[in-house]
Amino acid sequence: MKTVDARGKVCPVPLIMTKKALMEPDPANGILVLIDNETSVKNVTRFLQDNGMKVQTELKDAVFHLFVNKPERISENVQVEEYCQVETPVKSNVVVAIQRNRLGDGAEELGSILMKAFVNTLPEISVSPKTVVFLNSGVYLALNGSPVIESLKKLEERKVEILVCGTCLDYYEQKQNLGVGKVSNMYDILERLTQASSVIYP
0.85 exceeded by the pTM? Predict the structure, then answer.
């Protein structure tokens, strides 16, 4: 069985890889397509079914396994782009206000671990917050070298607003080390908090 490893790929790449595998000689032994996002699973499944193939899907360790037992040869002229539908993310008016660089009371080391997990999970949830605010020692999470800086950059790429307290940065003498977001003031931060449908204080 030929394996098409499309993990980490977004549309239209999984579709193109699947089509390429179906264009190769003698695909009759079957094809296994590995995908790790639901949107591409839906797109590839629809593409295969529209071209007369039956697909069996299993989810194992957060990876979708698409089994095509009797694949058909696909012509080079078949267009896959029309199957590339990207789901529009649901927008929210939730503000996450992070006031320190650790989560909860108790052991500081545990609190740091929990806060890291909290922030790194934000880009993975189905509905992203509208704004993430950093106050007091929470501003350290938005600095260069922070263990969550890449996750915050992902949020910013997805148009999540990131506001970092300028007074706090000045107090800790860290303004020059800001790695993500926008230096903000208390007026703008209060505007976001008062206009939010809900505020999460981790």
Answer: no
- Which of 125, 176, 196 lies closest to 155 in space, CA to CA? 125
For residue 80, the number of C-alpha atoms closer than 13 Å in the C-beta half-sphere is 22
pLDDT (average), residues 76-88: 75
**Rounded to an integer, what distance in angstroms lies between the CA atom of residue 21 and that of residue 116?**
40
Query: CA separation (Å) from 130 to 1, 98, 134, 155?
Result: 45, 14, 14, 10
Q: What domains lie within the chain, and their CATH numbers?
A: 2-83 (3.30.110.40), 94-200 (3.40.1260.10)
